[in-house]
Amino acid sequence: MRFFLRFKTFPSLFSDEFLGSGKKICYTINMKILIPTAKEMNTDLPSIEATPLKPESQAVLDALALYSASQLESFYKVSAEKAAEEFQHIQALKKQTAQHYSALKLFDGLMYRHIKRDKLTDAEQAYLENHVFITSALYGVVPAMSPMAPHRLDFLMKLKVAGKTLKSHWKVAYDEDMNGEDLIFSLLSSEFETVFSKEIREKMVTFKFMEDKGGQLKIHSTISKKARGAFLTALIENQVQTVEEARRLSFAGFVYREDLSQLQELVFVKEV
Known about the structure:
The protein contains 11 helices and 15 strands. The chain is of the alpha/beta class and 272 residues long. It is globular and about 50 Å long.
């Protein structure tokens, strides 16, 4: 998609207005929206064909596959029954027998349940495929519709991969996947954002969602997760490509609050 911008520098991406009567120069905007994985998964879906793992993903899988079911119980801090289930998931991936599903539909946490995932128009489907990416501690940064197998892993887990933490292991690959991006909308939690270098994080626009109860502004994880999903739906439906377009959105009762926002942190508030 092409937009006319006055400046080639990054700050011009924060507005779609033109100044004066100067020439309009045509640039192609490279923009990604990043979302995290979720613990909750739904496998009551049609499976799709797997794709080969990246070398970085294979190294993570090899490290996970060294754990026994009983070791996974303490690693994941879950019940023996849940650890046994995760052990089967890991072994199926290792043996290349795991069922794979579209990642956007596989994950089924609160944020994901508030994302429009079905009955998409052609334009909405194209927007999803071109702009929405999932950050995973196993798969890296991948398009939202990519095939994924059920698994449990995040960057708070103390897995060592060739002597490195998960964040250190993925940092170079994560940064490489963002090279060439002019604008990054981050709907990530800090555990995922901090995998990226400072240079990449400086390109990110972040979002905060709050409720106004009688003049008292409140924020908590339930509000944030639901709002992130609704906000992503609004981005998809409105084909948003600039920060100015994002500011104009209203969704699920949330509206932009300029008085609470900063250049690269947009705040949306819902009165309840």
